[in-house]
Amino acid sequence: MDSMEDIPILIFARAPIAGKSKRRLIPALGPEGAARLHSRMLKHVVGVAHHAAVGPVFLYATPTTEHSCFATLAQRYPLELRLQQGVDLGKRMAAAFDAVLPAYSGAILVGSDCPGIRTKDLQQLARALRDGVDSVLGPTEDGGYCLIGLREAAPRIFQDISWGSETVLAETRDKLTDSALHRVELAPKRDIDRPADLEALPLGWPEYQSFPKPERYSG
After folding, report:
1. Which of 15, 42, 145, 195 could, after both became Cys, cross-link 28 (CB 3.0–4.6 A)?
2. To which CATH superfamily is domain 9-210 assigned?
3. How far is CA 119 from the centre of its chain?
């Protein structure tokens, strides 16, 4: 696969620091448990991106690249570690696309808290971008999205979005439509953000057995 056929995967992740990572899960897991789960999900998505083999993998970290989890992943996989740049999430996402798209025919940006993402999802969406689809989306059940892909940089897609709200997906769809960007979407998946979401974790994950039962928490 030559460089113009490659579709790089840009993984966005916050350093899994106890007390600062996945804070909405702390009532169920405690600070250390929430950070461990965050680290586990990040390792999962990096592995998925690597095995999808659609293009190079870039790990965009915040607030620092200096964390043992990032170092371990950089040693295990042929990824490039970069620092997110921008004052808010929208600007950081736009900057990442701006940085890579001049060299490629498309790119897919993926979050780190959706263990439902599979290699076949990334392969399907990379194929769509190669075939000329303008954009791809991976909706989540909470009204957001776990991934977005573009063939060309489009900073306006990330402007004036109510980040963290239940309207992120709808607002993004509207912006893609207003920009005349045709899109392909995956079926909705589930982010792991709140205690009630723990029921969606893969049962094969060893850590799952030590989690409190999610039905005990209202979220």
Report:
1. 195
2. Spore Coat Polysaccharide Biosynthesis Protein SpsA; Chain A (3.90.550.10)
3. 13
